[in-house]
Specification:
Blueprint lengths: L3 E3 L5 E3 L1 H12 L5 H8 L4 H14 L26 H23 L1
Helix pairs in contact: 1-3, 2-3
């Protein structure tokens, strides 16, 4: 009826319908977090609290899986930027100057 999946790292992923049922049990039926966890086989009450909080903030869309999606262009590894030959030349000269100073300090 409700789908749950085990990820390769050992985390459980629950379907939106499963989360929705748990949230309904809390909001509409007045069940407690512990009782919902026992009934649905969820190991931690914090999971239910988080789903209820997301539901209140974003509606049913807040129950959708967000792992692995990033909306910010600044997250993750920065993309390599193509630079002109002059820029690359300036960067390499600065790097050479730095290494020369470093070598000189090491000799002292």
């Amino acid at each position: 009826m409700f789908e749950t999946k085990q990820t390769p790292k050992g985390k459980t992923t629950y379907s939106v319908e499963f989360k929705w049922r748990a949230v309904q049990m809390y909001i509409e039926e007045g069940w407690g977090y512990k009782r919902i966890c026992q009934e649905l086989g969820i190991p931690c009450t914090k999971t239910i609290r988080l789903w209820v909080k997301r539901y209140h903030e974003h509606g049913r869309k807040g129950l959708e899986e967000r792992r692995g999606t990033s909306r910010s262009p600044f997250k993750g590894r920065p993309r390599k930027k193509e630079c002109s030959l002059e820029e690359e030349n300036r960067r390499l000269k600065a790097e050479n100057d730095y290494l020369k100073k470093l070598r000189e300090l090491a000799r002292r």
